[in-house]
Amino acid sequence: MADLCSTGAIRLACHSELSLPLLLSLWMAGMDLVWRRIPNYLTLGGAVAGLGFQLGGRGWSGLLDGLGGAVLGFSLLLWPYLKGGMGAGDVKGLAALGTWLGLERTFYLFFYMGLSGGLIIIAVLIWQGRFWTQIRRGSIQLQNWVLCQSRLKVPARVEAGGLEIPYGAALALGMVLLCGRQLWFS
Questions:
Q1: Could you tell me what percent of the chain has a pLDDT over 90?
Q2: Which residue from 1, 33, 88, 92 could staple onto 43, CB 3.0 to 4.6 Å apart?
Q3: How many domains does the chain have?
């Protein structure tokens, strides 16, 4: 079995602690891309399955690690959700994946998800021909903030001209990057 698990996709399949949450994240991304929402049955069902996986595979310490991953994932995206930057499904999606991944991997997923989201936004802006307009707008806002810090109130939400990104795609791409990192360095 060790020889079979040494190459490519088969190597990922041998790591069910990565392949199962990867499949879940791809399913969430597909729902978010098509319906613009991540249903509760995916997030809740995924969370319960992840906790069961942790308990069955690693015992009580795994269950605690999974609960910690869920709390961390939920906490990391709660503020952006409250500010209107993403939907509740994205928050619950990271929490559900956190049950599978545990604390450390959930934090890495959050980092890769942010990186993926930024790249997706840049790609969409370039595709729509609005990249340089947004760069100029951001530059002007930054200059105003630096020059008038004490007198200027920065709006909590900056209008981006109707740009909405289904963040489930960034979640899935972040999960792909996490899997690549784990497999590359293991």
A1: 60
A2: 92
A3: 1
| 44's tokens | 């809740």
What is the per-residue pLDDT for 31? 95
Domain residues for the domain of 31 are 15-184
Judge whether 29 lies within some domain: yes
Find all residues with CB under 8 Å of 113, minimum gap 6, and list them. Answer: 94, 167, 170, 171, 173, 174, 175
- What does pTM read for this prediction? 0.82
Closest CA to 172 of 75, 72, 54, 46: 46
- 176 part of a folded domain: yes
User: Residue holding tokens 């900056």?
Assistant: 158
Q: Is residue 20 part of a domain?
A: yes
* pLDDT tens digits, 171-183: 999 999 999 888 7
Give 26-82 as a 3 state SS string.
HHHHHHHHHHCCCCHHHHHHHHHHHHHHHHHHHHHHHHHHHHHHHHHHHHHHHHHHH
On the 0-12 / 13-18 / 19+ scale of CB atoms within 10 A, 93 is buried
